[in-house]
Predict the structure.
Amino acid sequence: MELPLGDDPRSEVLRRLQVLLVQRFGHIERAAAAWRKPEWVLVQGVIGARTKSEISNAATERMLHRWGNWEKVADAPLEDLQTELVTQTYPNIASQRLKACLTALVERRGKVDLSHLAGMETGEAMDWLETLPGIGRKIAAGVMNASTLDRRAIVLDSHHTRILQRMGLVPPRASTARAFDAIMPAMPGEWSGADFDEHHLLMKKLGQTWCRPSAPDCATCPAQALCETGRMRHNPQP
Ligand code: SF4
């Protein structure tokens, strides 16, 4: 996968949006180093469907503490994984996906080890990750960006994608992969991997507060002036 990066007219919208989001929510600290190992981020993503990050973080730590390493987690009986992942929204799916993903990694790499990704170009590494069971664009981007790999790959969850669609920055109803391909060329060229990470976490906060799935509160939203939907709802054309 080629990752086109560079300025386009949407880049300035994203820069201004970031300033407004930081003003409203403040800066967001990155996770501790132990939570930024690529393998840790992968596991957290695989078990995290429709579950709050804090809950998935705790479950990831719990498994590592109980089994000691990810190879032992891969070998653990499915029922034990299901019991450990009872806090997740979908414990059965989370445990099946985790076992399948870690087992495939052990088969391909001999152990649960993603160190080879450091030598790969970002798009190529994401393509490799997406061949693993249960890994889609969101988790692949998370491993490359939120981990110590620190690459410029934007993580799009449902909140972030919905806001981009409503703002008119990606096509309406775009899938995560399509939205990723559409927004990457607009990501400001000077933003670091850490800036990408903070931007995603701030967009998630916006999606949990003003730009909720139903009944977005455009009237008081900090992004209203930059948003196609917000402008239409509050300054409709005659
Ligand atoms: S103005 Fe409305 S649609 Fe646009 S980001 Fe804010 S809440 Fe969402």
Observations:
- The chain has a mean pLDDT of 94.
- Residues 163, 166-167, 210-211, 216-218, 221, 223-224, 227, 229-230 surround iron/sulfur cluster (CB under 6 Å).
